[in-house]
Amino acid sequence: MKTAFIVRETRGHWIRDFAQAVRDAGLRPELVTEPLDDAERAELASVVEGFVVVDDVRDAPAVADALRDRAPAAVLTGAEGIIASTARVAELLSVARCSADALTLAHDKFAVRQALAEAGLPGPPAALFAGAGDAARIAEEVGLPAIVKPVNGAASTLVRTVSTVEELAAAYDLLATRLPENADARYHRPLPNGLDPRRVFLVEGLLRGPEYAVDVLVRDGMAETVTVVGKPLIDERKFELGMVVPPFGLTEDRAAAIRSAASAAVLALGLDQTCAHVEVIDDADRGPVVVEVNAGRPAGGAQPALLKLATGIDVTAEAVSLALGTPPPARGTGLPVPVGYLIVYAEGSGRLVRVEGTAEVTDLPEVLEVVTIVSPGQVLTDDQEIYAVNVLVAGFADADDLAALHAEATKLVRFELENA
């Protein structure tokens, strides 16, 4: 039996789903990982059928050398921070499906903004921000209010909205202080263009309009959108609290425009034989504007479960089939009623000891399923979105109903944290 190697950087519930999809495609899943402690190895031994231990999963030549004699059929990952380097491994082993250069570009938000503009797609004014002393110039160039974010960030890490030059300068100082402390390895390596993501940030003009998410599957140069997901509940940190399919009040023509924008962006970045999770704001002036392209992976958290409930399409299995080059998986049908997805975050930062209250959430009449993503020992931080507890729901009427369900679930779930 041929082997597909799944590369992991840190803990992730997605590993189990990827391994099962690999098995369903008729291949043997093995895990490429940095050194594991005994508890992690024991936990993962029931998920995969072997381990390849390397010093650094981001070192593409070293990972390729470790796998070369094992004749891999594919090398893939669902870990955001190593998608491009894993694609480079696949290229070195001649099993690549999507260009590593395209995936590398897609994980540089400023490069994405430039590429989409060159393709004639709408976008907000954007600029790189290299020092608090540049705040006045950046404000003049981009306009205020604006969004400040890491150039290669994910999960809304340290995203800040600013309305004045003083707030813009303060946001620079905050990111320059906090990002070097972030445990995510992506922030501690220069981007391919030499830019230091801990010192240079992205500023974009603020868009005004409802926000949506679209997963896009790209096979043989053709982009297929799975569905449009509405985001009616977003907090002041830009964290997603609740999503819904179909979106409240979205007309068919607006949905088609949003799907078209997501597909055009993915193709403009040169992505093929892969998937992308795309976020779109339907701006009052510009129309649908792509604000994020999370290339090489499906939606995060338990969103794949939401999409499967709503459409019958298993986006994880689709993503794995694209990476393997196997036929698309069979598809089912979605539920005939709106489906919602609620996210409960831990308050504060620290090492997780336990999560309590999920059984009480499961007992709520609207709840279909509760999925806990985090596990004891994991360090949680309110600098970024960590989808700790995910609640799939149905039987709600509108956005107010969904918000009330989120408030009820949040009251029931309890996180015990200790100092990291």
From TrEMBL:
It holds the Pfam family ATP-grasp_4. The keyword Cytoplasm does not apply. Keywords: ATP-binding, Ligase, Nucleotide-binding. The keyword ATP-binding applies. It comes from the Bacteria. Residues 113-324 form the ATP-grasp domain. InterPro entries: ATP-dep_AA_Ligase, ATP-grasp, LAL_C2. PROSITE patterns: ATP_GRASP. This is ATP-grasp domain-containing protein. The lineage of its organism: Bacteria, Bacillati, Actinomycetota, Actinomycetes, Pseudonocardiales.
